[in-house]
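Changelog-linked ticket: zinc ion example.
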Amino acid sequence: MNILSPSILSADFRHLEQDILEAIDAGAEYLHIDVMDGMFVPSISFGMPVIKSIRPVTDKTFDVHLMVEEPGRYIDDFADCGADLITVHAEACKHLDRTIQQIKARGLKAGVALNPATPLCVLDHVITKVDMILIMTVNPGFGGQKYIPEMTEKIAALRKMLTDRGLETDIEVDGGISEDTIRTVLGAGANVIVAGSAVFGKGDIRGKAARLLDIMGEY
Ligand code: DX5
Ligand code: ZN
């Protein structure tokens, strides 16, 4: 199933609840929540208190993307504040398998994210244990960057790798997805689509989310 996961990183935090409700009203099933620690990525975004405060706004899936060094330190905190799906970066975990186990032990869905330069082979021995793989289509750390074209081939290779193993694991793509690039990633085999600036950037959130969802309906 194709799912839109609008990234609140590009929302206006003065009226976060209203922005979230508009995106959900358009048909978004997930809400993408980018946590940055200023170590794994250069920037710092927000953490548990913000997630906790928006949890009552909706029962849609909170898709929490941890751009955090050694995220295993915080799995319980993010579970407690309302995450439904926690994605950790393979590059940020010394013990990736253990971190996946920690997420699953809390009854949550687990995802693994790969930076653009990280090869798919790091997934070889965990691929059967995760619910989602996130292919970064920009270098993580900021909203509003340009889609890296080489990632199309990576998405297609991952979809083949999953199909060859009889798996229907979700492939999420994150970074630079807009009306111009969404067909490319859907065609390559992605099915969970993160969009930050393309949904929350300047005005008509509902309309922009609806147009992306229309295109997703064609695949
Ligand atoms: C970037 C974040 C993204 C970001 C995407 O490091 O992981 O989720 O919000 O923003 P856009 O869609 O504007 O590229
Ligand atoms: Zn993200």
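Closing comment: Example verified and attached. Residues 7, 9-10, 32, 34, 65, 138, 140-145, 174-177, 194-198 surround D-xylitol-5-phosphate (ligand 1) (CB under 6 Å). The mean pLDDT is 98.
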